[in-house]
């Protein structure tokens, strides 16, 4: 297959805009893969603000960063992403990009999931801090009951952005079985 899968495509969307020295957000730290990826993009002078509500996710992310010697580039917060407005580094700087992997922690407790209302609140907060042409990348996993509810809420919300303020696009495979994840990207215009 020559087409990029959703995760490589999401990373391409981030690589296109993130430069060394930028501040970015991983709104769902999970097992730390995106946090580490973002830490490599922002370089020694940038910062990643990474959060997750679950202690296991924060610990896994901290371990991954430590193994890669990238701890100093990242602020880890055990909070829900809707609480970003309380993080001083978030409040005091422009955000170049953010990534969300919606759903539940891989190999974690599937009863703990992201929710539409908190995800939408986090998107609003990040969008307010986003630089012109900055991006919010959402990888939406909807193959579970709460995921379907969250998907509908997030899609309704992202479709409501006025085109004068943001470009909103979707990347998905339409002929795959079992509710494959897809990407929604919001790029700020002004």
TrEMBL record:
Swiss-Prot/TrEMBL keywords: Methyltransferase, Transferase
Annotated Pfam families: rRNA_methylase
UniProt KW Methyltransferase keyword: yes
Alphabetical list of InterPro entries matching this protein: MnmM_MeTrfase, SAM-dependent_MTases_sf
Gene Ontology process terms (BP): methylation
Keyword Transferase appears in the UniProt entry: yes
GO terms of molecular function: methyltransferase activity
Annotated TM spans: none
Cleaved signal peptide residues: none
Protein name in the entry: Methyltransferase domain-containing protein
């Amino acid at each position: 297959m020559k087409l990029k899968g959703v995760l490589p495509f999401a990373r391409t969307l981030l690589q296109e805009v993130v430069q060394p020295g930028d501040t970015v957000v991983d709104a769902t730290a999970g097992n730390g893969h995106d946090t580490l990826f973002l830490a490599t993009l922002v370089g020694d002078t940038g910062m990643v603000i990474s959060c997750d509500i679950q202690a296991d996710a924060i610990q896994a992310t901290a371990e991954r960063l430590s193994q890669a010697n990238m701890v100093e580039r990242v602020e880890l917060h055990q909070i829900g992403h809707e609480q970003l407005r309380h993080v001083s580094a978030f409040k005091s700087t422009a955000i170049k990009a953010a990534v969300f992997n919606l759903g539940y922690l891989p190999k974690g407790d599937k009863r703990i999931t992201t929710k539409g209302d908190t995800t939408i609140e986090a998107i609003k907060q990040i969008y307010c801090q986003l630089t012109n042409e900055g991006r919010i990348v959402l990888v939406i996993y909807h193959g579970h009951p709460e995921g379907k509810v969250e998907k509908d809420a997030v899609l309704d919300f992202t479709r409501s952005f006025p085109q004068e303020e943001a470009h909103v696009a979707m990347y998905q495979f339409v002929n795959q079985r079992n509710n494959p994840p897809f990407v929604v990207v919001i790029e700020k215009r002004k």
